[in-house]
Amino acid sequence: MSTNNHPRMQLNNILQTYGHRPEWHVHISGSQHNPVWHATVYIRGVQSGVVQGPNRGAAMDRAAHEALRSFR
User: Fold this and answer.
1) Which of 45, 57, 59, 67 is the least buried, fewest Cβ under 10 Å from its Cβ?
2) CATH code: domain of residue 51
């Protein structure tokens, strides 16, 4: 299984190399029938990815992907 398809795992692996962990802030808005998940990831206290998605996992994956782009 490739970590390229799992941005949260890839982000965790990179940060562990430096002895750091991501900090996640996740919340939901919208109606019960049409929820919107908001995910923000912080790296060493710096906001690195802010996104929304149709479910918690998708929002977190998108935020991790955005944070990974800052490493490239």
Assistant:
1) 45
2) 3.30.160.20
DSSP 42-65: EETTEEEEEEEESSHHHHHHHHHH
pTM of the model: 0.88
Domain that holds residue 10: 3-69
Number of domains in the chain: 1
Residues whose CB falls within 8 Å of the CB of residue 1, separated by 6 or more in sequence, listed in order: none
The H-or-E segment that residue 3 falls in is none
